[in-house]
Write a structure and sequence with these properties.
Helices cover 35% and strands 24% of the residues. By secondary structure, it is an alpha+beta fold.
């Protein structure tokens, strides 16, 4: 699992979110849970309205998540 673009939350927070899913065959529900957890991490840090968009794609056996934050 690779997460790109999440600058406002820490790498440790990202690791905590994805760790339970590493080296597992992911279902659609698992992917949605990861995306929801990323959104929750932003809200817990007080970043309402962040991230603007989260997209994902599966590439050659790994999940790539792209986080697009609102830039001011």
């Amino acid at each position: 699992i690779i997460v790109k673009g999440a600058a406002l939350i820490t790498e440790d927070q990202i690791k905590e979110i994805i760790l339970p899913f590493i080296n597992h065959l992911l279902s659609g529900s698992d992917i949605n849970l990861i995306l929801d957890s990323i959104n929750s991490a932003y809200k817990q840090k007080g970043y309402e309205g962040q991230p603007e968009k989260i997209t994902f794609q599966v590439k050659k056996g790994y999940l790539e998540i792209k986080v697009e934050e609102i830039r001011h």
